[in-house]
UniProtKB/TrEMBL annotation:
Keywords: Heme, Iron, Metal-binding. PROSITE patterns: CYTC, PROKAR_LIPOPROTEIN. SUPFAM superfamilies: Cytochrome c. The keyword RNA-binding does not apply. Residues 37-97 form the Cytochrome c domain. It comes from the Bacteria. It comes from Chryseobacterium taihuense. This is Cytochrome c domain-containing protein.
Length: 97
């Protein structure tokens, strides 16, 4: 019974706190292209999250296509969210050979 009441008030809170947000999400979405800032973030995440299990691979060691597959298997290992996954990918492929 207590659980039900709690769930009820949680839903209530959610709907209240969501109302003012709808105006915020009406903003134009950011462009899909990566900014220098995101690439810099990606570098930091790469250097911190990817050397836990092995030495940092050289970004230039793999092609951008190989990095897609590598990131698909390594991002979950490093517990990256989708955004971080994207930023790290953007960083490694931004490094010029
Ligand atoms: C939880 C441990 C762990 C973390 C964190 C991790 N890796 Fe790995 N990585 C591995 C293991 C184990 C292998 C070798 C076996 C394999 O290929 O799955 C590997 C292999 C690799 C390889 C070689 C793949 C190949 O095909 O030659 C690359 C490149 C790589 N990791 C990149 C990364 C990057 C980039 C990150 C950060 C996003 C990362 N790893 C985070 C465990 C990890």
């Amino acid at each position: 019974m207590k659980k039900l009441l709690l769930a009820g008030s949680f839903v209530g809170l959610l709907s209240v706190s969501c109302t003012p947000k709808s105006t915020v999400t009406a903003e134009a979405p950011k462009s899909a292209t990566s900014t220098a800032e995101q690439i810099a973030q990606g570098k930091t995440i790469y250097e911190n999250a990817c050397k836990r299990c092995h030495d940092l691979p050289e970004p230039t060691q793999y092609t951008s296509i190989e990095w897609v597959g590598i990131m698909n298997s390594m991002a979950p290992k490093a517990k990256l969210n989708d955004e971080q996954h994207q930023w790290v990918y953007d960083y490694v492929v931004s490094v010029k050979k």
